[in-house]
Structure formats: structure tokens, C-alpha cells
Amino acid sequence: DARVTQTPRHKVTEMGQEVTMRCQPILGHNTVFWYRQTMMQGLELLAYFRNRAPLDDSGMPKDRFSAEMPDATLATLKIQPSEPRDSAVYFCASGPTSGGFQETQYFGPGTRLLVL
Amino acid sequence: EDQVTQSPEALRLQEGESSSLNCSYTVSGLRGLFWYRQDPGKGPEFLFTLYSAGEEKEKERLKATLTKKESFLHITAPKPEDSATYLCAVQGIRNYQLIWGAGTKLIIKP
């Protein structure tokens, strides 16, 4: 049963510290999405990769967030420096494309981040 | 502007009491409408994709339908394990992104 995996599942850190979240997409999926979910904002798209290339990161605060995909099996989301307002659940999702269109996205379990 | 509105925000039902959740959307050319289920502390779990008006899909006690302006998720004789937040999202033909609704929190009481 193929699944998206994310590590760590939980992270508590202090303001100003660097946070790195990792995601292993489902083998064969060529797109990866990073989302942030809060009670107030719901699901917000942070970044999007297709075939490992970043196509859209307009949803990310550029001064502190960065996303990379060093290989097809790993996507990372970094926050440096972290702030209390970054506290949220961060989800990674992957999916295939077909005929140039994005097909269904499959979500990982999320990383629950608390910045004190 | 592409937009998705889900109603109601929350719905409490007795076990066995059938009902429907609504997802109204505005999008420039619908590519697909997606339904997901999210349990507390977990990621959204894919349920259905609908592509054209008139299409219907079923899974156990759930049935999703689609018109040109909205989608319904019908739940028949629900059980407590159907309690979750149900999310709706649409994809337009011009964009890869999903536009998400805020979700409907469904609570089924035994």
C-alpha cells in the first residue's frame, strides 16, 4: 500500500531555530505539493514541484521558507528562522500527471509544528 | 475568481440519520472536483473525483454527485466511524492547483 511519508511527525522548537521537514512521495508520482493547515486559514498551498523542478512557491514567505527536491524520493521544507506564527500542520502530497493535467493528490500524515 | 464554499460548517446526526453535505464552486472551466475525508490528527484521505455534470460515484455509505454549480456528498445511514471533516476541492482547466473549501465537520452520534 503506497503512501506518502513525512518526518518528523511532531516538532516543538523555540523561536529563531531552524526547522526541516522531510517528505517521501509515492514512487512514480512526478508532482509534490507542500501545504500548511491552520484552523483559521484551512489548507494553504506553499510550494509545488513537477519532475523535481519548483514551479510555484508563491505561497511561501520567501525570507524564511525554502523548499527543495534533491532527488525523486525526497522533498524538504525548511523554515529559518522559525516564528510562533509558523505553528501549524504541514502536509506533503504527491500525485501523478496525465495529459499535462494534475491528477489526484495523496497526502502524508503531516508534521505538527509548534514554535514557542 | 475561483472559489469553493462548503455548507454547513458542522453537522450533527444520529446514527442512521441520512443527510447531505454541499460544495458550491465557481471555477473557470472545471477539470475535476475532489472529495476528501480528514480525521483528527491525520492527512486528508482521497474519496472521489468527479469530472462532469451528472456524474455520480459511490463508496460504501457515501455517494457524490455533481452539477455545473455544486456537488453533494450524500451519506446514507451513517455510523459513528463516518465522523470526520469532509473537504471539497476543485481544479480548473487552466491551473494545476486545487482550490479548497473550508470543510464540513460531520459528527455521528451513536
Helical run tally of chain B: 0
Largest beta-sheet characterization of chain A: 7 strands, mixed
Q: Please indicate the percent range of residues of chain B in DSSP E strands (runs of 2 or more).
A: over 45%
Write down the CATH class of chain A: Mainly Beta
Number of domains of chain B: 1
The CATH C-level name of chain B is: Mainly Beta
**What would the CATH topology of chain B be?**
Immunoglobulin-like
Q: Structural class of the secondary elements of chain B?
A: mainly beta
Helical content band of chain A:
under 10%
Low-confidence stretches of chain A: none
Helical segment tally of chain A?
0
Q: Please trace the helix and strand order of chain A, writing H or E for each element.
A: EEEEEEEEEEEEE
Counting helices, strands and paired strands, the structural category of chain A is mainly beta
CATH superfamily of chain A: Immunoglobulins
Determine the CATH superfamily of chain B: Immunoglobulins
**Secondary structure: number of strands of chain B:** 11
Task: Explain how this protein is built.
With 116 residues, chain A is mainly β. Chain A has a single domain, classed as Immunoglobulin-like. Chain A has no helices and 13 strands. In chain A, the strands form 3 sheets. In chain A, strands 2, 4, 5, 6, 9, 12 and 13 form a 7-stranded mixed beta sheet that branches. In chain A, strands 1-3-8-7 form a 4-stranded antiparallel beta sheet, with no helix packed on it. A two-stranded antiparallel ribbon of chain A has the order 10-11. The model of chain A has no long low-confidence stretch (mean pLDDT 94). Chain B has 110 residues and is mostly beta strands. Chain B has a single domain, classed as Immunoglobulins (Immunoglobulin-like). Chain B contains no helices and 11 strands. In chain B, strands 2, 4, 5, 9, 10 and 11 form a 6-stranded mixed beta sheet that branches. In chain B, strands 1-3-8-7-6 form a 5-stranded antiparallel beta sheet, with no helix packed on it. In chain B, strand 7 and strand 8 (70-75) form a beta hairpin. Chain B is globular and about 45 Å long. Chain B starts with a strand and ends with a strand. The chains are: A mainly beta (116), B mainly beta (110). Chains A and B meet through strand 5, strand 11 and strand 12 of A and strand 4 and strand 5 of B.
